[in-house]
Amino acid sequence: MTEQGSAAAAQATTRLDWESSGARVAAFRTGDTGAPLLLIHSINAAASTAEMEPLRTRYGTGRRVHCIDLPGFGESDRSDRAYTARLMTDAIVRAANEICAIAGGPIDALAVSLSCEFLARAASENPLLFRSLAFVSPTAFTGTRTLRGPAGATRGKAWLYRLLRGPGWGAALYRQLTRPGVIRYFLERTWGSKNIDEGLWRADVLTSRHPGAHFAPLYFLSAILFSADIHDVYDSIRLPVWVSHGRRGDFVDYRQLPAFADRNHWRVTVFNTGAMVYFEVLTAFADEYDRFLAAPRP
Q1: Which residues contact 99 (CB under 8 A, 6 or more apart)?
Q2: Which residues pair with 227 in a beta bridge?
Q3: What is the pTM of this model?
């Protein structure tokens, strides 16, 4: 493990590099005391820890906060390899193990969108590493399709991945999808508004220019990172779970959520925002999250 100091948003941040399944995973720690908190960005063509900046800033003064770049994103390994739900899950487990070893106990963890599936699987398989789970705009609750396939199965199609990657045009396709105007378009759909966070837009444009940036997103676009057994995984969680999502934008269909949230260790909060709730109503989001964390454990 290597460490290097840096400064970010007036808070001291330490860079940590870990190895997981042969991939280098970059993590960034803010704060040296307080209860540990792990923050995990979403999965999209230009994802990175920049998505967690409001929460890192909010909690970095009183807690030991870790943000990780999942394999294929941000400052982590972006080599040409298979990017799977197992690879992402293992990276989260490695991070949780490292943080627990330092903190001496289980951690709170928060993930966004598709990464909620990876966090759920990590906690289902390693419940002693976690104290609580927070899912922001989680996937797999839309429509009516039941996702209870074979353990570890993917919803993706290998033929679609081969088509997207093609004989050399995968990188070209990615460049088209990550043009500044296209990134802005997708952020506006995520927000359900043109009033997006400009700092996140700039970070997305920069991170999408990294060498090898197209490899992991092609697995995302072909749905290989989506799990076919995720409803069984969600069902298996016995830890306290807080789900939050917004009412605007492309990610507002949660028809299946009541079937999972109708139990005493799940809690759901809906905000009048887009999918990146905490960018728009940070104080209200943090207040609700703090109440969840302070509630008696069921």
Answers
A1: 36, 38, 64, 66, 107
A2: 154
A3: 0.95
